[in-house]
Amino acid sequence: MKSQVKSQRSSQDREHRKYSFVYEADPEAESQSPSKRVWDSSLSSERGSNNHSAETRNKRSPRSQLDHQSASQKTQSEDPDHFDTSPIPSSRIRNENSSEGALHLYTEMEAPELTSNAVHKFWGMIRLESEGFSSPKPTALHDSLEAPSGGVSMDFVVMIDRSSSMNQDNKMAFVQATIEYMISLLGPQHRFCLLTFNQEANMVTEGLMEMNAENKKTVLSLLKEIRAEGSTNIGEALTTGITVLNSREGRHVDNLSTIMLFTDGLANMGARGDKLLHRLKHSPLPEGLAIHSFGYGIDHDSNLLQNLSIASRGGVYYYIENTECIATMFGECLAGILSTVAHNVQVEMSAADGCRIVAFYTRYSVQQIKEVKDYNIHMGSIYNHESKTILFKLSLRKMELPMRGSKLVNITVRYVDTNLHKTMVATGKLIVDRPSRAKIHPLPCALDWGINRFAAAATIEEASMKASSGDFSGAQRHIATMISSVKSSISYAHPTSSSQCDDLVKDLQECMIGMDRSENFVRGVHYANAYSTMYYLERSMYAKFHWNVKHTRCT
After folding, report:
1. Is 123 in contact with 393 (CB distance < 8 Å)?
2. How many CB atoms are closer than 10 A to CB 315?
3. Labelling 398: which of 1, 184, 219, 352 has CA 20 to 30 A away?
4. Which one, of 510, 152, 471, lies nearest residue 336 by Cα?
C-alpha cells in the first residue's frame, strides 16, 4: 500500500514539482512552508544521533561548537573504532576531460563523519564556480560590458510593451534609448529580434537579424518608429518570441537564447496569471532559454513576471520604479549575459545503496529519474564571476559495522564551455566516514550561508503572500524571525561570509519596510519579488535598488 501511494503521488506531482520551491520526496514534510522546513531542519531543539543537523546547528555559537569539538576529541581519540577524519578532500572532485573547463565543482556536507549505528538525515550542497569567480569583480558596470564576449553565438528576442501607459513618465523613450545602447554593444556573432505588443504582438524586425553594421542601422530606424497605444497582451508576445527561437535552423539551433521583456502594466488581454504560466510550462522551450523581465512602475504584475523568469533557465525579474534606473539594471543584465562562460548546465545526482535523496531546496528545474535515487537538475547558464549552488537533504541508513569512506552520491556535471565550444564533464562523489562514535563538527560556513540564502528567499516570498492578504503584522514577524535566524548562524560570525550575511539582513529589513502597511506594499511587493529572485538564483547581486518610504534611489 505504501509503495502504491508513493507511485500515485509521484505521477501526480512530478510536473508540479518542476516549478515548486522545494522538491520534497518526504510526504510528511509537505504541509510545511519552504522556509519552515529549512529552519526546522537546521535549528531543531531536539538532540540525538539520528539528527545530525540538530547537533551541529542547535543555536550553538561558532565558538561553543569549537569548544565542544575540542572536548570530544579528548574523549574519542582513544576509541579504536573512531576515525580521525578531515573535510572531504578536493581530489575527490575532478574535471573528467580537461582541467581547463570553465566550471569548477565543489561539495559541502554537514559533517565528514556520521555514526554507523544510527539513521541520519543531513544537509549537502553542490557548488559550481566559474573560472573567474575568485578574481576581482568589475568595479564599474562599463568595465564588464567592455569585456570581450569570446565570440559566443547568441540570439536575443526583445519584447517592448507599447500599451498606452508606456507614454507616461517618458518610459517608452527611456526603453528605446536602452535598446539603442544594447545594439551598440552587440557584434556579428549576435542576432537580434525586436517585437512589440499591446493587445496583439507585432514583429518589428524580420525575425532574428545578424548584428552587422547595416542591420544595426535598420533596427535603430525601426526602433525610433515605435508608438505607444492600446492594451497589454503579454501571453501573445511570449508565444511569438518563443516561436521565433524554436524556428531556428542549421548552425543557429544551439545558439544561446535570451528573451528580454519590458512592461509597465498588468496583462489585461489574452492568457494571463496561472493560465499563462501553465502555457509556458507545457510549451516546448529552446534549451537553456532565459527570460529576463523588467517591470516598470507600481502597476505591473511582478508575481507573474517573477514566475515567468524563474520558470525559464536562470532568468531574473528586475523592478524599475523610475526611469533613471533603467540603464543601470539593464546594463547589469546584459553584462552578465555577454560574460556567459557555460550554458546548458546540467547536474546529475545518483544516490548509492543505503542513501536516499529526500529533498532539494532550489528553484531550478528538477527532473526525477528514479524516486529518491536519481535526479537531473537543469541550471541554464553561468556567467563569469558567478557561483551557483544546489542545496539538498540526504537520508542515510544505519550500518552493522563501522566503515571508512562510505559512498553516498555520485555527481556528474555536463555543460557547454562557451570558450572551448565543446561539452565538458566534471565528476565528483560525496563520501562520509561511518565510525561507531562520531565527533560533532561545526557546520561548514559555505553550507550555512547557502541555507541562510535559500531560507531568506523563501521567507520574503511567504511574507509577501501574508501581506497580500492584509496580514502585515504576520509578514513583519515572519521576516523578523528570519533575521534572528541569520544573526544566530555560524556564517554571520565568520569573517569569510559576515559581509554577505550583513547584506542579507539589510535586504530583509528593506523588505520589511515595504510590508508594514498597504500604502507601502504597492511598491514593496515588487521589491520583495526582486529580492527573492536574486537570492533564489544567486544572480543580479551587483546592482540592487534600495529604497525607503520617502524616496527611491539607484545604487
Report:
1. yes
2. 25
3. 1
4. 152
Query: Residue 282 contacts by C-beta under 8 Å, 6 or more apart in sequence?
Result: none
Which triple of cell numbers denotes residue 316? Answer: 531574473
Number of Cβ within 10 Å of residue 320's Cβ equals 27
pLDDT at 7: 37
Domain 17-41+50-56+82-130+342-438 fold? Immunoglobulin-like (2.60.40)
The tens digit of pLDDT for each residue in 77-110 reads 334 344 443 443 333 344 444 446 899 999 999 9
* C-alpha–C-alpha distance, residues 255 and 288, integer Å: 9
Going from the C-alpha of 228 to that of each of 49, 205, 221, 414, 436, the distances in angstroms are: 65, 17, 16, 44, 72
Grid coordinates of 99 = 582541467
Alpha helices in 269-420 (DSSP H): 273-281, 302-311, 326-338
In 3-state terms, the chain is what percent helix, strand and coil (to 5)? Answer: 40, 25, 35
Global confidence as pTM:
0.82
Its CATH architecture, for the domain 145-338, is 3-Layer(aba) Sandwich (3.40)
196-228 b/e with 16+ CB inside 10 Å = b? bbbeebeebbeebbebeeebbeebeeebeebeb
Contact 187, 149 (CB under 8 A): yes
Residues in the chain: 555
Report which of 260, 289, 299 is spatially closest to residue 175, judged by C-alpha positions.
Answer: 260
Cell numbers standing for residue 396: 542515510
